[in-house]
Design a protein that fits this description.
Glutaredoxin, 176 residues, 5-stranded mixed sheet, 7 strands, two-stranded antiparallel ribbon
Length: 176
């Protein structure tokens, strides 16, 4: 058999394998090399009070959900009522990471839609987000009491995500 006849068949087979390997996978799940590792070190101002500083160490001690959001993010508005509900019910410790945003815009957005966050880390240049491997807002991370990343969620969180993935991990169960 000539190379000219084998090459198209090999390319077709390779494409078939690539397509088959992705069938049935959840498109919202993007593996993170940070899951199971210690969260990145950071130190940044509080969004609402620039005189306060948050760090990985200051947030440690109890598990929490850190939610990456921005005023310019339409999907953040979709998930916001879910976060508000779970925070209001006291089911989660919610920390915000305001990512690549203007302080005034973020504060106006929180004023308009509500502020469910206990603390909000202000990351206007996106450096903290880079260290967490953020690709877009919204993204959320479950962080253990000792500062390890237990889970990464890409896209808006739903009540089902909260009940089946986030809450079990915050309660100390090992798998979402």
């Amino acid at each position: 058999m000539r190379l000219g006849a084998v090459l198209p068949l090999a390319v077709f087979a390779l494409i078939g394998v690539l397509l088959w390997s992705g069938i049935g996978k959840d498109p919202k799940v993007l593996p993170s090399v940070l899951v199971g590792r210690s969260a990145p070190e950071f130190s940044a101002p509080e969004l609402r009070d620039p005189n306060l500083t948050h760090s990985k160490a200051s947030l440690s001690g109890e598990p929490y959900l850190i939610n990456v959001f921005a005023s310019w993010c339409p999907s953040c508005r979709v998930e916001h009522p879910v976060l508000e509900r779970y925070a209001r019910e006291g089911k989660i410790r919610l920390v915000g990471l305001n990512w690549k945003d203007e302080r005034a815009d973020a504060l106006a957005w929180l004023q308009r839609f509500g502020d469910p966050y206990e603390e909000i880390v202000y990351d206007p240049d996106g450096r903290i987000g880079i260290d967490f491997g953020v690709t877009a807002a919204p993204e959320s991370f479950v962080i253990s009491a000792d500062g390890a990343i237990l889970y990464k969620h890409i896209g808006p969180l739903t009540p089902e995500d909260m009940e089946t993935k986030v809450l079990p991990l915050l309660a100390g169960k090992t798998t979402p």
